[in-house]
Specification:
- The chain has 29 helices and no strands.
- 78% of the residues lie in helices and 0% in strands.
- Among the domains are: 111 residues, Tetratricopeptide repeat domain (Serine Threonine Protein Phosphatase 5, Tetratricopeptide repeat, Alpha Horseshoe); 61 residues, Arc Repressor Mutant, subunit A (Orthogonal Bundle).
Length: 552
């Protein structure tokens, strides 16, 4: 909202002080002062300010009530600029807090009708930026997003609005990332982010959104190092300024980095805290639920993963998560239906946005032995990776080449591609991906008749999966290791357990809970849970009760 300008003597002092508190980020003080101003008489300015303070304080009921009343009063006054400004914010509110897409779009169109014909003003820049953000997250129309962001950047520049110019630059960069113009895109995002962290930007909304765009862009190009560094800056900024919702969003982004790094217990903590903080912002909880589902899937807890993915519906990555669960359960047909449905809804211009779907499609088609369709999906991934992708994308492309070569019967080529992928995964500290690549490399070496080398790679993959707690992949690795060793160890004695796992199993036999085992062995409950998961996996049993019965 616009602050009361010096010289506007008609504005009550209480309203001026409230707006100044809002500008400082003193949300509670601002709310008290706006409420005091309203006690002296209802004005749209005080209502708008109260809605803004409530927005930062996670109070959506007050946000909607205050802003909708302010809108009506501005319309009654005949002030299209102020009414359009509030309509823009309500469009965003309905998308974020309630995930009501149709209502959000209605407010957005109302804002356009009110603002499109007025003289150039900051309100028009914000409308373009909100429209771009909603188009990006709700429709994935990267061309429209880029057009709107560029227009917003240019208008902000003409009006001398540095904060909005930098946010427009960042939004333009994010759209270009989606279109595959990664190098030029990241230059734009880098510049805008430096302006944010250097203190050049003063508007809290614009600054926080610029930092959020940077972290999201890093995720999309698979640059975990860069994302980790910017997450630290983002969380410091949000914590210092009391931006609790944006801090929670950043925790969710950071959890993605932690999952990739193999720090799964920490990732779960971050996601759980973020979800609790964002429970009133329905649209912002869906990515967190999807990430929790992916974590459970990696841990082999497929029923729990399915539940999280269902709660995140219709968020596209959650649909991909359900497809991966189907593939893990040996149902490539269902997985294929889900992935193809997501791809149909994604624009071909959103090249980065399609990569995750295409990666899964390659695996599904390879599982079905369909070389041609797998190679076609791979070609699209290679095109994106070849125009400026970070190491994570290059590794993915190499991994896909290896899988397709395996199915095509060219084990020598598969070996070379998988070794390249493995090198990139390890260089970038991605232990789960590295273990998957090792397992696939073991299969290639097996076909080449290099049994000892295959066994070494598969055992190293197994060690990696067990260390992470990746139960599904660990079972696959153990089965292949047994096959390569010429033995069937799927039902051996508890001698296959580590000494610590044997201790945990004995305490399970005595009926202790995870918390009691943790206290007995002086471990965290997370560590105990991982040991229990490994025990079930190694003994190939479905439950704690079955493990105890097996050991008796």
């Amino acid at each position: 909202m616009r602050l009361v300008q010096p010289g506007q003597d008609s504005a009550p002092r209480s309203l001026t002080e409230a707006q100044q508190a809002l500008r400082r980020g003193a949300w509670e003080e601002a709310r008290r002062r706006f409420e005091a101003a309203l006690a002296d008489g209802e004005t749209p300015e005080a209502l708008e300010g109260l809605g803004a303070a409530a927005w930062w304080m996670e109070d959506p009921a007050t946000v909607f009530a205050s802003r909708e009343r302010a809108y009506r009063l501005y319309r009654d006054r005949g002030d299209p600029l102020a009414a359009g400004r509030v309509a823009t914010e309500l469009a965003y509110d309905y998308a974020v807090f309630r995930a009501e897409r149709a209502v959000s779009n209605g407010w957005l169109q109302r804002a356009h009708r009110l603002l499109d014909d007025v003289d150039p003003a900051p309100e028009q820049v914000w409308l373009m930026l909100r429209d771009a953000e909603l188009s990006h997250h709700l429709e994935g129309d990267v061309e429209r997003v880029r057009r709107l962001a560029t227009q917003a950047k240019e208008l902000a520049g003409r009006l001398g609005l540095l904060d909005l110019e930098m946010l427009g630059l960042a939004a333009e960069g994010l759209a270009m990332v989606g279109m595959g113009e990664v190098s030029d895109a990241m230059h734009r995002v880098d510049e805008a982010t430096v302006a944010a962290v250097a203190g050049e930007m003063q508007d809290f909304k614009a600054t926080a959104q610029t930092l959020c765009i940077m972290v999201f862009a890093c995720e999309r190009v698979r640059d975990a190092d860069r994302a980790s560094q910017w997450c630290d800056r983002f969380m410091e900024y949000c914590g210092r300024n009391g931006l609790q919702a944006h801090l929670a969003v950043c925790r969710g982004h950071y959890a993605t980095v932690l999952i990739a790094r193999g720090r799964w217990d920490e990732a779960e903590d971050e996601l759980t805290q973020a979800l609790a903080a964002l429970h009133v912002r329905l649209a912002w909880t869906r990515p967190l639920l999807e990430r929790l589902g992916e974590l459970r899937r990696l841990q082999g807890r497929l029923d729990e993963a399915d539940d999280y993915f269902a709660r995140a519906h219709p968020y596209p990555p959650a649909i991909l998560g359900k497809a991966q669960v189907a593939l893990d359960r040996g149902d490539p047909e269902t997985a294929l239906d889900l992935v193809e449905g997501v791809l149909r809804r994604l624009s071909e211009r959103d090249r980065l946005g399609r990569v995750s779907s295409l990666e899964l499609l390659v695996r599904i088609r390879c599982a079905q032995g369909e070389v041609g369709p797998a190679a076609a999906a791979l070609k699209e991934i290679e095109a994106v990776a070849g125009i400026g992708g970070a190491d994570g994308l290059l590794a993915s492309a190499n991994h896909g080449r290896g899988l397709v070569a395996l199915v095509a019967g060219d084990a020598a080529a598969a070996k070379a591609h998988l070794e390249d992928a493995l090198d990139l995964y390890e260089r970038n500290g991605l232990p789960f991906d590295a273990a998957v690549a090792r397992l696939d490399l073991g299969r290639a070496l097996q076909i080449l008749g290099r049994t000892n080398g295959a066994l070494e790679q598969v055992r190293r993959a197994l060690d990696g999966f067990q260390s992470l707690g990746a139960a599904v992949e660990a079972r696959s690795a153990r089965a292949l290791a047994d096959e390569l060793a010429g033995t069937d160890q799927s039902r051996t004695s508890t001698g296959i357990l580590s000494p610590r796992e044997a201790e945990v199993l004995e305490l399970l036999r005595r009926g202790l809970s995870n918390q009691e085992i943790a206290a007995e062995l002086v471990l965290s409950t997370h560590t105990v849970r991982r040991h229990v998961s490994n025990i079930l996996d190694k003994l190939d049993v479905p439950s704690r009760t079955a493990a105890v019965a097996y050991a008796v």
